[in-house]
Amino acid sequence: MIKHAECCDEQCVHKNLVDKVLAELPDEDALYDLAELFKVFGDSTRVRILIALFEAELCVCDISEALGMTQSAVSHQLQILRTNKLVKSRREGKQIYYSLADEHVVTIIAQGLSHILE
User: Fold this and answer.
1) Is the separation of the CB atoms in 53 and 61 below 8 Å?
2) What is the CA radius of gyration of the chain?
3) Do 54 and 109 form a contact (C-beta atoms < 8 A)?
4) Strand 58-59 and strand 95-100: pairing?
5) Residue 45 and residue 20: Cα distance in Å, rounded?
6) Residue 7 pLDDT > 80, yes or no?
7) CA nearest neighbour of 48 among 72, 29, 73, 25
8) Neighbours of 108 (CB within 10 A)
9) Contact by Cβ (8 Å): 47, 105
10) What phi-psi label fits residue 93: left (phi over 0), alpha (psi between -120 and 50 degrees) or beta?
11) 53: closest CA among 109, 113, 116, 112?
12) H or E stretch including 98?
């Protein structure tokens, strides 16, 4: 049986609260972009890569070895993560190393892990 969320017993709109929410609500483009970002986190393979990069800066060879994936599969997922500005890369000689893009991504990963491990 599906349990539905509880509703108010009587209709009563708190206009001051609704107005406050509407004043702070981001525009539709920003909300769409946020939903797209969460879609990226919705793939367990990409999350595994992000968790690996949370621990250390790694090249594709390192990631594929650590996660038991082909280099081609890792490269494909890294491209999606780069497009969504979640990882960055740097070249050192013939190697390209990947890391989390910035402290925002580090925070998202850390807080996500903390939340699920509570």
Assistant:
1) no
2) 20
3) yes
4) antiparallel
5) 39
6) no
7) 73
8) 16
9) no
10) left
11) 109
12) strand 95-100
Only one residue has tokens 């939903």, namely 35
pLDDT at 1: 65
Coil, strand or helix at 42: coil
Find the mean pLDDT for residues 89-99.
Answer: 96
Other residues' Cβ atoms within 10 Å of the Cβ of residue 82: 14
Buried b (16+ CB within 10 A) or exposed e, 45-71: ebebbbebbeeeebbbebbbebbebee
Report which residue type is found at 113.
L
- Half-sphere exposure of residue 25, counting CA atoms within 13 Å on the CB side? 10
Q: What is the pLDDT of residues 36-73, one digit of tens each?
A: 999 999 999 999 999 999 999 999 999 999 999 999 99
Tokens of 89: 């890369």
Q: What are the C-alpha distances in Å from 80 to residues 5, 37, 46, 52, 74?
A: 35, 11, 9, 16, 10
Structure tokens at 114: 């903390």
Per-residue pLDDT band for 5 (boundaries 50, 70, 90) equals confident
